[in-house]
Each structure stands twice: as structure tokens, then as C-alpha cells.
Amino acid sequence: MGDWEWPLILFTVLGQIAIGIIVMLWWLDRDRDHLDTQLFKQGVYVSGGLLILALLASLFHLGHPEVAYRALAHLGSSWLSREILLFLLTFLAWINLFWLSRRQTSSHPIGADAATITTAEIAAEGQQSGNRSLGLGITSVLGLLGIASSAMIYVLPRVPAWNNVGPVLFFLLTTGLLGALVTLVLGRKLLHPTQKKLLLQCSLGCTIASLLFYVIYASMLSASMEGATSLNFLLSSPLFWARALLGWFAPLLLLVSMLKNSQVAKTNLILTLTLFSVLGEVLGRALFYLSATGIQITALF
Amino acid sequence: MVKQLGFVLDVNRCLGCGACAKACQNRNQLAPSLVRRKIRKIEKFSKDHIEMFYLSTACNHCGNPECLRVCPSGAYAKRRDGIVLHLSEKCTGCKSCVASCPFGAPLINPQTNKASKCQLCYERLDRGMPPFCVQACLTGALRLKELKDIPDNKLLRLTAPAPSLRLTRPSVFYKPPRATKVSGFLFPK
Q1: Scanning A224, A280, B137, B149, which has the fewest C-beta atoms within 10 Å of its C-beta?
Q2: Cα-flanking dihedrals φ and ψ of residue B175, to 5°?
Q3: CA distance A243 to chain B (A)
Q4: What pLDDT, in 10s, does the model give residues A191-212?
């Protein structure tokens, strides 16, 4: 069995929230003028803060954090080297977003008097939103590649519970789920109802996919002895059931009721939902590390 | 010329005395938690036969080492004689090798916070001397050989149940244990 890997839990979950926010902003910005400038700024600041925290947390996993730069030395075959490079590139792309957010003027609200907007202002705004969309797109793609590289580190023949598509899938689903929910929290007063609904639908999709894939993943685990050991550990652990309650069942109930009753504007419900999901994902990630059982050669075969 | 040195263990000669493991521990001045060579007792029972032997294992200096593949800082290297070296000065202590090695060879040294594993006493080998473990073996059960010179059909290769793990091609061979026939006294029919 593995250990409580707090630096890795924090690095992966916080990094995925940060990149998830950027991806959601990019998605909301696909029609250019639909992303509120204030939300863009808030999203960039929060994602940057989380990304910095994540990168700092990752250092504590190393025996020698002061020589962390050496981990870039084996890009040819090490997914850890690739992950670090991609996260550093994501951070550089985020610095560009930060610079863009500082230069961004407030957008005109929908329905503003068209006569008051000059042609020059429209051209400048078009340029700004074009740069913003490009910046968000580049940061999102780099971040998603970084997350995929993070997951590939765990695809190891020695650990049957990890040696499958599970890590990549679950890391990307966490990005989608928590990215959408934290963006919803940030934009609870700034988003249009349709945008809120879209984010809730995205969260619901990710939660359902996570639950369904977990059932398939668990059934795959029983195929090997070490995988079955991981599965037994999970099913007998109270943490797993807390994760299931907080990360799957409670969010599913809340999301379905919010989407059915059009209660998308209720701040308390959004905050509760986000808190449950974050806790569920943190517990899920802790269990990911705790339940890993490696193959050990014990005899001649 | 590229070679592949590897351990060859005749399990019929091995007494399980642990001299190889003790020599490795003492001569390399390793911390108590840093066990580079382990002795395991293997018992297999079938209807007619009993197999019981001791298996002395350390780093297998694989032909295709997982530790070398996953290490982000390039702290592993494979010499032309096949020895997989851990270069401590490049190690960041990220534990990737510890998680990935199917044989559990690399361990974290609590004194240095870096990985540590059997280096096959390469400095002694370069001076024409045997590794400490081979030198300490009382019965000559543990030997170091150039693996290309050994006919494969005489030996068992240490391997693993998962096909993907076999791809590491561990450079350790064993002379198969002789099974002991079960007497009627022990297992009456």
C-alpha cells in the first residue's frame, strides 16, 4: 500500500483546478464577446495563485527541492520531465494571460447603447478579445498536455491499478469538474443564466462520467492479484465511502436538483456543491496513492 | 564491446546463510533500512514434490531498466558491461524509480534523501575484484557471469507474471531447484 502523498495530492488537485478554470474561461470565450472582463480577470488571478501553490507543493515531494531543475534532464523517456516542462510552459502562458488581464478594459455589457461606442473602440476591443482568446487557448492546451503527462507518470507496468487509461481519464475529469465549479463560484454574479447552466451541465457530465468509469475501472482491477488487493483496500476503507458520498452522490443530487428547478443562481448551493466536490476529489486522489499495490517478484516463474 | 554482466544463482547450493546480504550491508556501510540484497525462502508444494530453496535477490541490472526510463533527472546510466548505475549526484529524490521498479531494487536512503541501489561493486570490478556478495558466498552458489556465455536452456530467468514487466529483461539467472520427492511417510496415499 502507498502513503499519504500530500505534496502530490495538492500539486495534482490544485494544478487541475487552475487549468480547469482557464479551460472553462476559454470555452466561455468562444463567442469572443460573451466572457465578462471582470470574470476573466478574477479567473486569471485565482488560477495563477492556485498554479503557484501547486508548483510549490510539488517541490516538497522531492528529497532535494533545491535541485528540482534537474528533473528536466530526461525529456526523451521520462513523463515526469515532460510534466514539469509542460507545467512551466503553462505558467509562462499564464504570465501572458496576467499581462493581458492587466491591459484589459471593461467590456460593454450586452444591450449597451450602440451609439456611444466608437469604431476605434470596437476595433480595440476586437483586438483585445482576440488576444485573450488566443492566450486562453494556448494556456489551456499546454495545461491539458501537462495534466496528461502527470497522469502518464503513473501508468507503470509494476502497478496494475495504475497501468491503464484510468489515471489520464480521472485527471482530465477532475480538471473539467472542478474547473467548471470554481468558475461558477467566481462568476456567480457575473455569468448569464445560460452560461451557469452550461457550467452545471459540464459538472454533471464529468461527475456521471467519473462514477461510471470508476465502476468499469474497479471491475478491471479484480483481474490481477495486486489490482484485487487495491480494490479490497478501497472498498473496506471508510475514506472511499466518504469520497463516494462527497464526490459523487451528493454532487449528483445537488446538480440534478439545481438543473431541474432552475436554481442556478443560488450562491449557497453552488458553494456547497463546490466544497463537496473539492473534498471528494482530494479524498479520491489520496486513495489513488494509498491504494496502489505494486507487483513484487517473490518466486521463480 | 557491449556485454551484459549478471548474477547467476545455483539455488541447490544456496544455504540461505545470508552472508551475501550481510557482506553487502557491512562493506557498503549501509543504513539498517537500506537493504540492497534480500534472502527469501521459497516453498512450493505439489502432490508429489516439495521445492524449498532460498532466493538471494538484489538489483537485476535489467537489459531494459524501468528506473532508467522513468528517472526525470537522468540519474541512471547503463554501462557497456550492462551494469545499471545510479548517479547519486544527479538524483533529486523524486522516488519515481522506487515506484516503478518491479523488483523493488531502488530504495530511498534516509540519510541522503536520494535513491540508492546495488551498483554491482563496479569500482571493485574495474580493479578485477568480485563484488562483495559474490566474494562472501560460502558455497559458490552466487556468481557473476557474462550472460552471453551461458546457454539459456540450463537456467531460469527471473521474470514476472505480467508480460509488460518481462520487458525489463532482468539480468539474473537461476539454476532450477531440484524437487524433493514426497515420501509416503509425509504424505500417505
Answers
A1: B149
A2: -75, 125
A3: 25
A4: 888 899 999 999 999 999 999 9
